[in-house]
Amino acid sequence: MGDFARDGVHLLASEDPDLFNLLSLEYQRQVNTLSMIASSSIANPSVLACEGTVLTNVTTEGYPGQRFHGGCKYIDEVEKIAIERAKLAFNARYVNVQPHSGSSANQIVMFSILKPGDRVLGLGLDSGGHLTHGSRASFSGQVFESFAYGLDASGFIDYDNVFELAKRHQPRLIICGASAYPRIIDFERFRRIADEVGALLLADISHIAGLVASGIHPSPIDHAHFTTTSTYKQLFGPRGGLIMSGRDWETRISERSETLADIIQRGVFPRMQGTPILSEIAAKARALAMINTPQFRLLAGNIVTNARVLAEELSALGYRVLTGGTDIHMVLVDIGERGLSGTIAERVLEECGIIVNKNKIPNDKRGSLITSGIRFGTNTLALRGMDATNMKDCAALIDKVLSKVEPIDDTEYRLDSSIVDDVQSEVMALCRRYPIPQYPQWTTFDMTNEEARIQKMSI
Ligand code: DSN
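Above: inputs. Below: predicted complex with D-serine.
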């Protein structure tokens, strides 16, 4: 199998040099820049290896033991292992590993339990919610009647507002979880609110899945009826999604005879998806194997420590950090208050080798392609081995750029080339000191019986 993968790389290089060159350049870009995109991570090479295997050649539909095609002897085992590892990582009673992404996972849950026009209540996009949580720009706000809860004056989720809106609008589904919210989410309180109004609760933990699995952030698994996550962010896995349930997996909702787990099984296939991406399922299994290790817990702790230090440093340098800090991996900064747009901050930092993304902030006067905020995250830098001291260096580099850039308008800027050169060379020095990939110590996870069994099969 190793030869097969190696041959593939050689064939790509010799037969499609244009494409090979682009992939090589992208690899170099990742190696030589500091990725502070909050949703980014670096997949272990063994995760990437799973994505590049012969599993891509398998077409089937259905679930292990209930397929619609032959030839599933081994991929059934792969999918079962992925399910078992996800259950173990999240203490889940039910897991579906087939969703193609976190957004697909949300879509599947919503189309499985709601009818068009049903009401949903989610965190507003400008307050840090995700497109799939009821935004008018997505199916979630077009097919369903959506209402948005928001933040209090300090930028924290306003749970009283959630309760008020839930009582007023009687949503069928409440969605909690966020894309740009730096604080702990009180899943237990969300469930109390959902129960008060007879709603179902969906927790989307895509951004904080690693912290949840490590016990650093409280888990929604037994509070929400459904928990969804993407697998590429803080699980350091492939692009893909999971749908999970805890104690409610066998709950039945009034007008349906099936359990919630059965509803989701049918929702994924045949209602919303066809052939699962089996190479991605193998890659999910591989990434999930690393979750229950001391190394992963250490990494998750470092991710949060780094983010806290970054928030403190940026505050000390005079930046307005939303909510005054962070509990997770994410730091949100109001850059409009410094006379800059998010677009300028994103572009000028990228020119210097620091990759971030613009983000709308509450009451933002700029649109979503310009914004007044930037979002930082520490997943990738912590994985590269950077610590609190390095975060101080990163904050200083960010400030060196943002305090000197001269905006011309909301998209164009000037920055002295000597500053660009200085910061680029400091970024390169950090990248050389903390190269990617940094994974050798991760090979020591405890094998479950399932893993031992599949190893003996030597597929
Ligand atoms: N791409 C994710 C993020 O940046 O938060 C949202 O799906």
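The radius of gyration is 22 Å.
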